[in-house]
Amino acid sequence: EDQVTQSPEALRLQEGESSSLNCSYTVSGLRGLFWYRQDPGKGPEFLFTLYSAGEEKEKERLKATLTKKESFLHITAPKPEDSATYLCAVHTGNQFYFGTGTSLTVIP
Amino acid sequence: GAVVSQHPSRVICKSGTSVKIECRSLDFQATTMFWYRQFPKQSLMLMATSNEGSKATYEQGVEKDKFLINHASLTLSTLTVTSAHPEDSSFYICSAQEGVSNQPQHFGDGTRLSIL
């Protein structure tokens, strides 16, 4: 069964404390893996697309990496404005599968 | 680039009213649009997928006659909640995808629907 699992469900970090969010997947044929950020009361905002194992993408304090089984979203020296829910999604060619998200809180 | 506009952002109306939500891709042509429902502190629940000029494909358990979807052009899709009742109150989000299937979805900012 195709599945996307994100961990942890919630993460609290002190400002400047780097960490990683995990998105593990079991799907039959990965066509793309996507990371989104969602603020309360808003739609998800697209961050990155990764297509093949070994690929990495960076944007400001965020870096996404991909292996054959999982993706990590690394957050370096986070700031309070990085607080949000981070969603990953996998496309198999037929369907998108979304994880349930990691709620990140960065404390000043 | 890749901006999706969704209107209205909030609707409050009486039970029995029909409500139309618009989703527009502003700077790209969306071959596929998606409609989601999101409950508090939960992930996105796909309701239906629509392609321009075709009938929408609804997910299991989603009533076609209740949630009417029209995808009349490559930049516009609408969701009409017919005869809305309080249990239809939710956060509805649309997304649009450009070109080939392995492209990301780009999301609107959602519509908060409250039925009194």
What attributes characterize this protein structure?
heterodimer; A: 108 residues; five-stranded antiparallel sheet; B: 116 residues; seven-stranded mixed sheet; 0% helix
Question: What spatial form of chain A do the alpha-carbon principal axes imply?
Answer: globular
Q: Which band does the percent of strand residues of chain B land in?
A: over 45%
Q: Can you give the mean pLDDT of chain A?
A: 95
Rg value of chain B: 13 Å
Major sheet details of chain A: 6 strands, mixed
Q: Would you count the extended β strands of chain B for me?
A: 11
What oligomeric state is this?
heterodimer
Supply Rg of chain A. 13 Å
Shape of chain B: globular
Helix content of chain B: under 10%
What's the helix and strand layout?
The complex is a heterodimer of chains A (108) and B (116).
Chain A: E1 3-7, E2 10-14, E3 19-26, E4 32-38, E5 45-50, E6 56-59, E7 62-66, E8 70-75, E9 84-91, E10 96-98, E11 102-107
Parallel strand pairs in A: 2-11
Antiparallel strand pairs in A: 1-3, 3-8, 4-5, 4-9, 6-7, 7-8, 9-10, 9-11
Chain B: E1 4-7, E2 10-13, E3 19-25, E4 30-38, E5 44-51, E6 57-58, E7 67-73, E8 76-81, E9 90-98, E10 105-107, E11 111-115
Parallel strand pairs in B: 2-11
Antiparallel strand pairs in B: 1-3, 3-8, 4-5, 4-9, 5-6, 7-8, 9-10, 9-11
